[in-house]
Amino acid sequence: MKVILIIPAYNEEANILKVxxxxxxxxxxxxxxxDYIVINDASTDSxxxxxxxxxxxxxxxxxNLGIGGAVQTGYKYAYQNDYDIAIQFDGDGQHDINYxxxxxxxxxxxxxxxxxxxxxxxxxxxxxxxxxxxxxxKNIISVLIKLFCKKQITDPxxxxxxxxxxxxxIFAKNYPIEYxxxxxxxxxxxxxxxxxxxxxxxxxxxxxxxxxxxxxxxDYMIKVSLALIVDSLNFKREKRKKNDK
Amino acid sequence: MTNNLKIGLVIITAIYILxxxxxxxxxxxxxxxSTFWLTSGILLIIAILIPNLVENxxxxxxxxxxxxxxFCITIFVAFYLIFQLTMRVSKVYTNNISLVxxxxxLKNRVNELEKEKKDK
Lengths: 245, 120
Hints:
The structure holds two protein chains of two kinds.
Chain A: E1 3-9, H1 16-29, E2 35-40, H2 47-53, E3 58-60, H3 66-80, E4 85-88, H4 100-108, E5 114-118, H5 132-149, E6 161-163, H6 165-173, H7 180-190, E7 195-199, H8 214-244
Parallel strand pairs in A: 1-2, 1-4, 2-3, 5-7
Antiparallel strand pairs in A: 4-6, 5-6
Helix pairs in contact in A: 3-6, 5-7, 5-8, 7-8
Chain B: H1 3-25, H2 31-49, H3 53-61, H4 66-119
Helix pairs in contact in B: 1-2
């Protein structure tokens, strides 16, 4: 099983080296080595220099694309290099590498196509539960997804997720750039792919600033809801076309 | 409309059409998109030259004064145009993203190959 971590990084000079070191440590301890690819989303700080100096495997985007475009580049890379599992892994140190095994398991056992690492499933295992606003937003997206797909996804915005080969191919060809996590989750669900969530705990950001404030979240919520509604119409039509053939 | 006003308007419209033709010749506008601007110029000239044309259309459509009709039509056309442009911008945006991705992937591949070559 070839496994790759896709690590999008935008202005992560404070964190990226730490993330790289945790991967190195993990690979020294474990037999199943993890490959990784850092996608430098045209950072304006010294992220690129750090990547070059430390000989970290990276793709340097020639223009800033935002998180969706950066992550899709990773999926394209994974597709071209024939990886079996691709895991999205944040460049800011929020995700814990020790959960990678857990998140891969359901895919290795061929139970599901995508596995999402969720921090809300089990309150005791997660010290960092994030703010009220974020949870509220997530709940609304959850409800929308349940409405359209009849499946409970507790954390559709989680950026810690693993997908199998088939989904890598789909994402490489077509990935929702604007609101990647919730939209891609819904696209898979509507097209009858299996998704499962496993509880993980996440760290608080170790450095840098989070870009989220209350107005941005409200704006985000409205647009995501709209995107999901539009997607639900589009994807269903595509599915029907498939059935016709 | 006084004759002086008519002459003035025709001259301005003629300049407008000439400017558009000039840009088309310089290939600054795609031909497919330029038709809209050319037609608008020609329609303006027709509306100015044919007497009572605008007034008659106004009556026919049931507007009270020509100004209302002209504003109404202009706004509708402008909205349509903006909508078209939004669609084009979206398309250019997605195209641009995949271009950036492919180029960046290629650059990464070139670097890898160069490294392999050096190691040999």
